[in-house]
């Protein structure tokens, strides 16, 4: 029985076991998409709490393959899973749907949620890369802690990018990890090297999304790396490294993995063990030795 078939098995124990298998590997892009879609279908129909928890916990392993439609369906799943809450926040995308107006040091705007479920305290980026903080959400005149996909609400935004919001139509949470994953799949080795070089910064950007935190301060606090975004990037980097033919790109990918070492897990290390250190140039070999050193904590 294939994994996607097992995720739809009539026996909830089989569905739970299949979901737990998902987190034990690094998946190729096509498999990420297929398994992600199967997990979303399973979670949307699940009635057994243990199986649902396993399905939601497995989603970060195939997060890069989730489509906007998958994310919309996940927003309809009723669960208090923190994994699901963080995933939907990371995927948040807002469309500014009415003229904005200043409100002291912040900006008021009417927005529609196009994807995910942004929460108060979340950091969002304008298209030119400026950061804003989602200070407050109002739905039908009442405060809310999240804005679900498809909903329109009034929000208060602060931070460096808030004053220029009138120039933009869209705000995104966590765009950089997904951009790095796409870059690591590019045919041009220079693009792969640049994507790898930005991976640690991208994981840090994903961590700009707690509850409250630096909201209202204009973003003075240093970002904390989002663990699931860190693991997603480790999977993409490890997959790129084992297939890499360009020495400079390989060096960049292994160096980025060292920078994200706390988020490396057995699936990533299993891939890296496939690299033949004896054939590598000196610097990539040093990085690989450090990554595979016995007793390395991660």
Structure notes:
This protein is α+β, with helices and mostly antiparallel strands and 298 residues long. It is 45% helix and 14% strand. The chain is built from 13 helices and 8 strands. Strands 1, 2, 3, 4, 5, 6, 7 and 8 form an 8-stranded antiparallel beta sheet that branches. The radius of gyration is 20 Å and the shape is flat. The two termini are 33 Å apart. 48% of the residues are buried. Mean pLDDT is 89; it is low at 210-223.
Briefly note the structural class of the backbone.
alpha+beta
What fraction, in percent, of the residue positions are helical? 40-55%
- Helices and strands, in order, run as HHHHHHEEEEEEEEHHHHHHH
Radius of gyration: 20 Å
Report the β-strand fraction as a percent range.
Answer: 5-15%
The total of helices stands at 13
Q: How many angstroms separate the termini? A: 33 Å
Show unreliable segments.
Answer: 210-223
Kindly report the average pLDDT value. Answer: 89
Shape, principal axes of CA atoms = flat
At a glance:
The chain is α+β, with helices and mostly antiparallel strands and 298 residues long.
Tags for this model:
298 residues, alpha+beta, 8-stranded antiparallel beta sheet, 45% helix, flat
List the topology elements.
Layout: H1 3-7, H2 12-22, H3 29-45, H4 49-58, H5 68-75, H6 82-90, E1 93-96, E2 101-103, E3 106-115, E4 123-125, E5 131-139, E6 142-144, E7 152-158, E8 170-172, H7 175-184, H8 189-197, H9 199-206, H10 227-243, H11 247-259, H12 266-272, H13 282-292
Antiparallel strand pairs: 1-3, 1-8, 2-3, 3-7, 4-5, 5-6, 5-7
């Amino acid at each position: 029985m294939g994994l996607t078939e097992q995720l739809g098995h009539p026996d909830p124990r089989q569905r739970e076991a299949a979901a737990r298998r998902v987190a034990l590997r690094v998946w190729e892009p096509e498999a990420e998409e297929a398994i992600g879609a199967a997990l979303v279908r399973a979670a949307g129909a699940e009635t057994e709490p243990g199986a649902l928890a396993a399905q939601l916990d497995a989603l970060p392993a195939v997060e890069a393959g989730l489509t906007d439609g998958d994310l919309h369906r996940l927003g309809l799943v009723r669960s208090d899973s923190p994994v699901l809450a963080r995933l939907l926040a990371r995927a948040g995308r807002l469309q500014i749907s009415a003229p904005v107006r200043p409100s002291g040091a912040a900006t008021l705007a009417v927005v529609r949620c196009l994807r995910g479920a942004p929460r108060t305290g979340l950091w969002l980026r304008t298209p030119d890369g400026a950061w804003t903080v989602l200070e407050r959400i109002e739905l039908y005149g009442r405060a809310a802690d999240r804005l679900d996909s498809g909903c329109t609400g009034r929000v208060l935004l602060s931070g460096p990018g808030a004053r220029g919001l009138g120039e933009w139509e869209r705000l995104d949470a966590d765009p950089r990890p997904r951009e790095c994953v796409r870059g690591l799949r590019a045919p041009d080795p220079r693009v792969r090297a640049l994507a790898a070089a930005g991976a640690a910064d991208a994981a840090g950007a994903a961590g700009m999304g707690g509850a409250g935190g630096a909201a209202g301060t204009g973003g003075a606090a240093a970002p904390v790396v989002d663990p699931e975004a860190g693991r997603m990037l480790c999977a993409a980097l490890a997959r790129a490294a084992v297939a890499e033919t360009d020495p400079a790109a390989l060096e960049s990918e292994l160096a980025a993995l060292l920078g994200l070492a706390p988020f490396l897990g057995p699936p990533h290390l299993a891939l890296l063990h496939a690299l033949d250190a004896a054939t590598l140039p000196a610097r990539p070999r040093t990085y690989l030795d450090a990554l595979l050193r016995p007793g390395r904590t991660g």
